[in-house]
Amino acid sequence: MTDSFRSATGRKLISRASAGELGVVGHFVVDADERRIAALVVGRGKKAQLVDWAQVSGFGPDAVMVIDDGALRAPVGDREQAAADGRLDLIGKRVLTEQGNALGVLDDVIFDASTGAVAMLRIGDRDIPAASLLGSGPYAVVLDATQDPAP
Amino acid sequence: MTASQINGLPVVTVRGGDDIAEVRDVIYDPEAGRLVGLTLNKRGFFAGRRREVLPADAIHAIGRDAVMVMDESSLTAPEDAPSDVGHPATERNVIGDDVLTEGGRSLGVVRDLAVLVGSAGEVVGYQIDKAGGGHGYIPLPAQLAVSGAALVVPDVTEEFVRDDLVGLGAAVDEFRSRLGLE
């Protein structure tokens, strides 16, 4: 079943073990090399915590189920801290091709809720296959040459 | 695009999606007819010059919106860069040079470089202030000799003066084939 970053943002995070609510999905951290969700960011600012995708036991339409209350962890290292701070959030980020030409702003990401694999990147009314994703970071999402606008 | 449009562009890593520098100036080799590299500023207003340079062979592509590099290691200390990038000669600028045909006709004065979008810095022509007024573009490789004051181009160049970059793009191939270059 596919889901999207925009529609999943704000969804409850529930511990399968305790049935307790641990927070809500703030945004997503994507591993551009693997083209899949690496982690979810829960909360904002200094209190933001991460949930590794491996801790997600069921990404459902009404709640995101995690294994237990220990699924939440603090960010480790510069890149995870940047992620927790929201600087790596893909939504709203400028999109460049590897040729250095802008395509617009990333509006949404379509993913497989059972595996966390990114399927499509939505820019305006265009859906671009995740295979074109080369990298992402604080400044831009970078796509391969097949997405370059004609000169 | 023109070389002056490259100045100020962010330098962005393909893998990291990070803006690690911005272009301060282009370094052009008029004899070779290509960019040999870029000098850099730090990102942000008043952030100042970056010591490292970006040699042409470390440029992934120059686009309208960014200069792309693979990663931070593409930036090179001046002493480790080719000497024409690390220590560029100051008198090799062609901007302001008079463009003279072999027959001794002035086509105008060099105003800017025309750079192929998406390339690593291929210069395909010059933007000129035409002798008769207005701007135009002439294709490269064109000059036979270049000094600090003038560059000499084949007589046929006069037939390939174009009004815009789109026209130049179409003219370059025909121009080169007329000169027996391709």
Describe it.
The complex is a heterodimer of chains A (151) and B (182). Chain A has 151 residues and is mainly β. Chain A has two domains: 2-84, PRC-barrel domain (SH3 type barrels), CATH 2.30.30; 94-147, SH3 type barrels, CATH 2.30.30.240. Helix content of chain A is 8%, strand content 46%. In chain A, the strands form three sheets. In chain A, strands 6-7-2-3-4-5-8 form a seven-stranded mixed β-sheet, with helices on one face. In chain A, strand 9 and strand 10 form a beta hairpin. The termini of chain A are far apart. The model of chain B has no long low-confidence stretch (mean pLDDT 88). Helix content of chain B is 12%, strand content 37%. Chain B has helices at 3-6, 83-86, 165-178; strands spanning 10-13, 19-29, 34-41, 49-55, 61-62, 67-69, 98-101, 106-115, 123-130, 135-139, 145-146, 150-153. Chain B is elongated, with a radius of gyration of 17 Å. Chain B folds into two domains: 3-91, Roll (SH3 type barrels); 98-178, PRC-barrel domain (SH3 type barrels). At the A-B interface, strand 14 and strand 15 of A face strand 1 and strand 5 of B.
